[in-house]
Fold this protein.
Amino acid sequence: MRIGLLGTGPWADMAHAPALGGHEGLDFVGVWGRRPDAAKELAERHGTRAYDDVDTLLADVEAVAVALPPGVQAELAVRAA
């Protein structure tokens, strides 16, 4: 399954990205964050691609992991669905 990560904060970096990258059944396609520089840094640390545009990431994956603040999650979850 092709999966992406939405978010670049501590949980995304310490929990989500390592789990996605280390899971044999997943293709960790990339990461998007509200701060492109943070997305680039996280992607480099975890061997994946940084996306500048969330819709491009969503088009490239079958699922997403969400590691964003609650106030940001709802709108992006609807778009991902």
User: Anything to note?
Assistant: The chain has a mean pLDDT of 96. The first helix runs from residue 10 to 22.
